[in-house]
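Q&A log
Question type: sequence-to-structure
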Amino acid sequence: MSDEYQQQVADPKNGPRECPENWGLLRELRDSSLIPAGLPSWFPGQNTGIAEFHDCQKFIEITEDGQREYMGRFAIFAAPGLETMDTVLRPISVERPCGVSVEDCPDAGVVTEARPAALIIAEKPYLPLKIRKPGAYCLYLHREDGAWTANLVSLADVEPPYSECLDPVQARGQFGESLKVISTTEPTIPADGGFYPPAARIDWDPWHEQHYFGLRCGTAWCEVGDPTSFGTSNTQELHAQDLTDKARGTVLVKGWYDEQFLAIDYYGKLVPSNVLGTIYPDKDLGPDDAGVEDDFSDWVRVARVAIKQPRQPSLRDLSL
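Response status: OK
Response body:
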């Protein structure tokens, strides 16, 4: 562990500048035997050190008096192959309802194998996502009747193949903890899935004030959360007006942008505010159509930032 990292960890006010810098959280948990020594062979992989493919945040909890506080750090690492997840899942059971033809409903009665979609590292328990203790978890995705489903498995509590978070498993979803999946496609951008980055995100459910995960699932974006009470974050349609298809993709597809509540200093302690910050990458980052990259010899727009203080929704808005 570097001296710089130790110095940041020792800072009781701010902690690591990144979350966590150089993935020190993995080392801390491994040293304390909270995660297995043998992580999936794809971790670390070619994308592990590229922060944009993954997400790591301090989760927010709501205290009994309604205040927001930071709790432990949580990280999600996207597994390879998210872009083809919907095409590589093999059926393990077909129980087609009587009278339903393959032509009319090709997915009816079909249950597929489950494949690893992400590695999750948790510093604290978080019951809305069925994280019951600190450690490493594997998030599996599979399909039943054409709908996405998810299971979360603690790598410390299971035997292979589940503990490896590597190969498909054939268990009809009866393993680990079940989570709810909401899959979405953006109708105003091309439908081939190319606008969905093979990334994973930590998101915020404003209706129930709790965190959930988001990641690419083939040609869609899948949001994975509490199976009993789960709503998704607000869309960014307002910021996408009058944009081209390419630019709309970076605003409307959640995997492209980052959105978090900004921190404030409250009597010497950093606490989350209710001010929401969102940063969208510029559509022209990277090589142009001719393969030429900008040399940044002059000012280049790289992102747009939105700051807002949203009205907090409540269950009354749903007449519940």
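Response note: The two ends are 50 Å apart (CA to CA).
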